[in-house]
Amino acid sequence: MGKTSTIIKREFLSRVRKRSFVVMTILGPLLMAAIVIVPVVVAQWSDSEYDVAIVDNSDYFVHAFDDRDNVRFTPLGTNIDHALELMHDGRFDAVLHIPEAAFQAPSTLRLFSEKSVNLNARLLIENILKLEFESLKLEHAGIDEEVLRKIETPVNIQAIRIQNDGELITDYPEISMGLGIVSGLLIYIFIFLFGSQVLRGVLEEKTSRIVEIIVSSVRPFQLMIGKIMGVGLVGLTQFLIWVFLTFFIVGIFQFAMPDLFQFTPDERVFISSSQVLSMEEMEQQRELIQQQDTMAGQLLEGLSAINFPVMIVSFIFFFLGGYLLYAALFAAIGSAVDNEADTQQFMLPVTVPLLLAIIMSNLVISNPDGPVAFWLSIIPLTSPVIMMVRIPFGVPYMELMLSGGLLIIGFMATTWLAARIYRTGILMYGKKVNYRELWKWITHA
């Protein structure tokens, strides 16, 4: 064990001292925190007024435009040519021309601008005109518009998750979906990133013949396990630093700029023992509070519904389990060949299960409790990715333990398999290895 720990220490220190490790360790949490922070900050910076002049020759729509969403409307009593001159002089960003025949021919509407038209302003104008056209058509048809408005019933069902202890929490399926995809993708990237480091490390030591000196002091199995464990500890260290720094950075921004993260859940809007509200008042209060909520606040509220202790512990376990399983196979491939080009023929069958897990993630997200999701999260070759996709949606602890147990068995099996290939291949040079040769090493070593 002492020799193995020495190899682990050597592999760990040789990698954490590299400049690339330091750069990625700092850059990783900055990128993850930026996913939450940057869209909010950019939205704040881009909140400039967009001035639109309105020339309404039909006199039907001019009073329908109210300033909103940083778009300001100015009715003009001039002709379109004069309005365009004012825009050219910098008075307006765009000019909306509503011809006299607009009601009969909506395709005659025009929005003029010397620069690319602001998409938010265009969508707002189209929405306003759509409602006005519908209202005018109802009026011409003699249909009471108020009756139709009462019939329209927006439905927004709030999802509530009942936890194992009976506690009720607001569920955000979109947040769970995004977190599941990100977690599964990170597991996939980490396994490939650090697994390939094991493969290259083994191949470099073999081609440089340093391994001949090393195996004179340690057994091949100790060398393989030490290299796998050392690189794995590098990945684990980097991940833990990422988690800590990401929460730290987001926490600082949340404390320094609380207005950017404002959000009030629906269950907190109406709770007041001294206040009795009518249905109309409750809806008005809800709309008022929703106007003050921010995208970042809603995102953080949705993330708070995720069981992060289970999420983080599961990520560490399935990353280590998946990494150890595949790293053993990568080490075996590296020991069996003499150059990196020869690794391609053996990499395909090893990487297919991981690629299949990523491809099937979309199907798993649509039905995280279905039979396909269950079996893919149980099979050791696909469980690291698929289980992390499922966990944000809530997975029974029995399934977690079953998946974890089978992953440990899978790691032990691949390690035994890789060890038999490694101890023969690591000292073999100048011979093209095929699958028949590998099978001979496994069965007769």
Features:
D-Maltodextrin-Binding Protein, domain 2, 445 residues, 64% helix, 6 strands, 2 domains, four-stranded mixed sheet, two-stranded antiparallel sheet, 6% strand, mainly alpha
Q: Give the ordered list of helices and strands.
A: HHEEHEEHHEEHHHHHHHHHHH
Tally of DSSP β-strands? 6
Number of individual domains: 2
Rg over C-alpha atoms, rounded to the nearest angstrom: 31 Å
Please state how the strands of the largest beta sheet are arranged side by side: 2-1-3-4
Shape: elongated
User: In this structure, how is the largest beta sheet organized?
Assistant: 4 strands, mixed
SS class: mainly alpha
Textual characterization of the structure:
The protein has 445 residues and is mainly alpha-helical. The protein folds into two domains: 2-38 and 174-444, no CATH class; 50-151, D-Maltodextrin-Binding Protein, domain 2. It is 64% helix and 6% strand. It is built from 16 helices and six strands. It has a four-stranded mixed sheet. Helix 2 crosses helix 10 (295-304), helix 6 runs antiparallel to helix 12 and helix 6 runs antiparallel to helix 14. It is elongated, with a radius of gyration of 31 Å. The two termini are 23 Å apart. 29% of the residues are buried.
